[in-house]
Amino acid sequence: MTLETWLIYVTTVLAMMSTPGPSQLLMLSNSATNGFRRSLLTACGDLTANMGQMLAAGLGLAAILLAFESALTIIKWLGVTYLLWLGSKMLWKARSGNGQIKSAPRVSNKKLWLQGFVTSATNPKAVVFFAALFPQFIDASLPFWNQFAILSATYIVIDGAFLSTYGAIAGWLAKRLKGPARLWLDRIGGSFMIGAAILLAFKSMRQVNS
Question: Are 49 and 79 in contact (CB under 8 A)?
Answer without folding.
Answer: no
